[in-house]
TrEMBL record:
<dbReference type="InterPro" id="IPR036179">
    <property type="entry name" value="Ig-like_dom_sf"/>
</dbReference>
<dbReference type="InterPro" id="IPR013783">
    <property type="entry name" value="Ig-like_fold"/>
</dbReference>
<protein>
    <recommendedName>
        <fullName>Immunoglobulin I-set domain-containing protein</fullName>
    </recommendedName>
</protein>
<dbReference type="Pfam" id="PF07679">
    <property type="entry name" value="I-set"/>
</dbReference>
<feature type="domain" description="Immunoglobulin I-set">
    <location>
        <begin position="16"/>
        <end position="67"/>
    </location>
</feature>
<dbReference type="InterPro" id="IPR013098">
    <property type="entry name" value="Ig_I-set"/>
</dbReference>
Amino acid sequence: MLKSLDCHHQKSVEYNTKTIKETRDFKMQYDGTKATLVITEAFPKDAGVYIVSAKNIAGEATSSCNVFC
């Protein structure tokens, strides 16, 4: 099962308040203005709140989603 989370001007992604680092199971893809977090294989342990934070000179924005597996 493939899950993805999209955002613009991504700076960090957190899962249940811990910063996610890219691994074999968590891939981060960038196309210039949009970043995508791909969970290559989602398990029940991956369920939870994912928060994307972006910051630049214009300000800061966050977006979150709750993933159920």
